[in-house]
Amino acid sequence: MGLEAIAARGCQVWQLGLLPYERTWQWQQELVAERRENPELEDVLMLLEHPPVYTLGRGATLDFLKFDPDRPPAELHRVERGGEVTYHCPGQLVGYPILNLTYYQRDLHWYLRQLETVLIETLRVYGLRADRIPGLTGVWLNGYKVGAIGIKVSRWITMHGFSLNVNPDLEGFKAIVPCGIGDRPVGTLAQFAPHISLTDIRQTLPEIFAQVFQVSLVMR
């Protein structure tokens, strides 16, 4: 497919606030179902924050929880995405792209690397040099994991997505082994660039997303 077709594809940007996890989880499922019925619908990028919540990937082990799953310190959900346990809370920007990869590349590894690129290039705008670690999914800054990624793809339509730790309270991460990686710490942008706000990232990230995926943004 030529670049002209990709560039012409619209992607709605939904700038949302602090929303319960279950609400946005159901919302994603509805958006995916609509696009199964009508693949020509525009893509969507949901940007939001969650109250404290732990999520487990579909095959995640409970071994990475440091609490009784029957008495979690915050909400706990097992969902369709890949990967192990992660934690969401205010101060962390969560992105849920609902994309039809038929219009891009039918390649899950390509898609994961694209999401990493969005986060890396977003941080580059602020003079922060983030990078990848071979064999692992996510984005690191000075050895700290600041960006996590977990996806689900059904009939080449994506859901779930990424999270970027801008200035969250990391206390909740102490109750888990984040993403099953016990030897690498979780960090925030605030540790290295406290002047960067969540509002800044919300404005910059969609522009980078549009460049990386070659889409035309439709602001909502």
From TrEMBL:
Site feature location: Lowers pKa of active site Cys: K145
Keyword Cytoplasm assigned: yes
Keywords of this entry: Acyltransferase, Cytoplasm, Transferase
Top-rank lineage group of the source organism: Bacteria
Catalytic activity reported: octanoyl-[ACP] + L-lysyl-[protein] = N(6)-octanoyl-L-lysyl-[protein] + holo-[ACP] + H(+)
InterPro entries cross-referenced by the UniProt entry: aa-tRNA-synth_II/BPL/LPL, BPL_LPL_catalytic, Octanoyltransferase, Octanoyltransferase_CS
Parts of the chain that traverse the membrane: none
Active site: C179
Chief location: cytoplasm
GO biological process annotation, one example: protein lipoylation
Domain BPL/LPL catalytic: 39-217
GO molecular function: lipoyl(octanoyl) transferase activity
Pathway: Protein modification; protein lipoylation via endogenous pathway; protein N(6)-(lipoyl)lysine from octanoyl-[acyl-carrier-protein]: step 1/2
GO cellular component, one term: cytoplasm
PANTHER family: LIPOYLTRANSFERASE 2, MITOCHONDRIAL-RELATED (PTHR10993:SF7), OCTANOYLTRANSFERASE (PTHR10993)
Its biological purpose: Catalyzes the transfer of endogenously produced octanoic acid from octanoyl-acyl-carrier-protein onto the lipoyl domains of lipoate-dependent enzymes. Lipoyl-ACP can also act as a substrate although octanoyl-ACP is likely to be the physiological substrate.
Protein name in the entry: Octanoyltransferase
